[in-house]
């Protein structure tokens, strides 16, 4: 498995953890948004390097949503 695939899977796992932390009420929502932000930034960088513009755009939108969530729940 290449380093890029490992990083992609890291992002997937991090965002799943964030989703579970919200749905199971394991952490505060603010913490979940921060976890989401980490996963989305990682994937954003990978998609930029791969020039996968559709997934790059989707992750950019998720980053904006994460930042709004962080601001609203702070």
Give the fraction of residues assigned to helices: over 70%
Rounded to the nearest angstrom, the distance between the terminal CA atoms is 39 Å
Q: Unreliable runs, pLDDT <50, ≥5 residues? A: none
Shape by Cα distribution: flat
Main sheet attributes: strand count, strand direction, barrel closure:
none
Strand content: under 5%
**Alpha-carbon Rg, integer:** 13 Å
**Any idea how many domains?**
1
Spell the H/E element sequence: HHH
Q: What's the β-strand tally? A: 0
Number of helices: 3
Mean pLDDT: 96
Secondary-structure class: mainly alpha
Give your account of this protein's structure.
Helix 1 packs antiparallel against helix 2 (29-50) and helix 2 packs antiparallel against helix 3 (53-73). This protein is 86% helix and 0% strand. The chain has one domain. It is mainly alpha-helical and 74 residues long. It is built from three helices and no strands.
């Amino acid at each position: 498995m290449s380093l890029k695939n490992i990083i992609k899977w890291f992002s997937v796992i991090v965002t799943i953890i964030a989703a579970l932390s919200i749905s199971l009420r394991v952490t505060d929502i603010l913490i979940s948004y921060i976890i989401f932000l980490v996963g989305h930034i990682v994937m954003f960088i990978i998609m930029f390097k791969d020039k996968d513009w559709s997934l790059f755009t989707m992750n950019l939108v998720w980053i904006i949503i994460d930042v709004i969530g962080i601001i609203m729940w702070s």
